[in-house]
Amino acid sequence: MTIATNHRKAWCPAIEVKETATHLILKAEMPGLTANDLEIQVSPETVSIRGEHPEAKNEGAKELFPSELHYGPLECNFPLPVRVNRDRVNAELVDGVLTLLLPKVEASSS
Prior knowledge:
By secondary structure, the chain is mainly beta.
């Protein structure tokens, strides 16, 4: 028996990563998504973001130009340039921009 599934390609948002003396700041564009649409996992070396952006159905509307909006599954992994403390991450989603404040792991003084 064959089961039909939807094999839409996952998309990855535009991101920027900045560094301060104590933190990495990762911003990702997530228009149309809410915090409930996202799953964020942070390890000391990587940030993983997964989610789904459902396409709104407009009955009777036909597409005049190919859509450039991202719909469907979202999945991406970002390697981090320095190790971060995953237990102290702060995340917020405001006006379609996800911001992660990632505290750097302090170098051990040996």
